Amino acid sequence: MQKLIIGCLTCLVAVLPKSATAQMEYPLSIAVAESGKLYIADRNLPGVWRVDGSDLSTLFKGSKRFRTPLNAVRCVALDGNGSVLAGDSATREVYRLGEDGKPIPLTDGGIGIPMGIAVDSKGQLLVSDLELHRIWKVPGEGGKPALLAEVPAPRGVCIDGDDNLWVVSHGKDQVVRVSPDGKVEAIVEGRPFQFPHTIVLDQDKTAYVCDGYARAIWKVPQGGKPTKWISGEPLVNPVGLARHHDGLLVVDPRANAVFEIDATGKPTKLELKLKE
125 burial class (0-12, 13-18, 19+ CB within 10 angstroms)? Predict the structure, then answer.
């Protein structure tokens, strides 16, 4: 009887459509292209998904073997040309991915654990390194990383119009700002967040911070104090964050979902299907 049940289940899986059997596994980071396409770093795929409309497809799927490209992808971003950038701790590397998805290493293994990537007005990559507690500056075309600043346990990053880098830190001050010349300034003093991951800015330099343990998105007005903007269901453990129109996109690995948050704070789950 047990063999019969297993056989029936195997047959059932075999006849299910692709959209039912293939999906995101553990999404951590998201980036939005000018075209409207989304790119999602999935730690357990492992690799990067591309979303066009509601169609989900694989841009690059790595190997399950450690120390291979994007085996432990942590973050995704876009450069000024619209190319996808991805940080990978398995190979201690930042990659550029073309439309064909082929990963091109940019630092010759010069990063420890890349947790966030931003691109300044000159096209330089600014990468947070959780292992070495540093912010690295990398030439846009690739090359040896140069130290920009030391920041305790840096995670998500974003850049403002003045090329200042905003950094989520698990040090004594949880949001800091790094000037182009490497000066570090505390923006959110102390530790009001439970486990902050990522940060984005709106046009008024209001910051939004993803807090996984609090199941919340915090709002930090310029010069003001953090307040919870949204919290609780449907968020389970929000990690990745991106600006999208007048709102936000949030990736939640525990919910295995992408949520769109409108300007009023209303969350809606994106319904994605695997592209045939």
Answer: buried
Residues 116 and 217: their CA atoms lie apart, in Å, by 18
Tokens of 164: 């200042």
Task: Give the containing element (helix H, strand E) for 147.
Answer: strand 146-150
Question: For residues 32 and 120, what is the distance between their CA atoms, to the nearest angstrom?
Answer: 16
Is residue 55 within 8 A of residue 276, CB to CB? The reply is no
Determine the Cα–Cα distance for residues 156 and 126; give it in Å rounded to an integer: 11
Tell me: the pLDDT tens digits for 180-228? 999 999 999 999 999 999 999 999 999 999 999 999 999 999 999 999 9
Give which of 209, 169, 202 is closest to 185, Cα–Cα: 169
Give pLDDT, residue 165. Answer: 99
Encode burial over 8-41: b for 16+ CB neighbours within 10 A, e otherwise.
eeeeeeeeeeeeeeebbebbbbbbbeeeebbbbb
**Global model pTM greater than 0.85:** yes
Q: In a 3-state reduction of DSSP, which class is residue 15?
A: helix
Q: Side by side, which strands form the sheet with 125-129? A: 114-119, 125-129, 134-138, 146-150
- Report how far residue 270's alpha carbon sits from residue 276's, in angstroms, rounded to the nearest whole number: 18
Helix (H) or strand (E) holding 228: strand 227-231
Q: Who has greater pLDDT, 11 or 253?
A: 253
pLDDT in tens, 93-115: 999 998 789 999 999 999 999 99
For residues 82-94, average pLDDT? 98
Would you say 94 and 125 are in contact if contact means Cβ atoms under 8 Å apart? Answer: yes
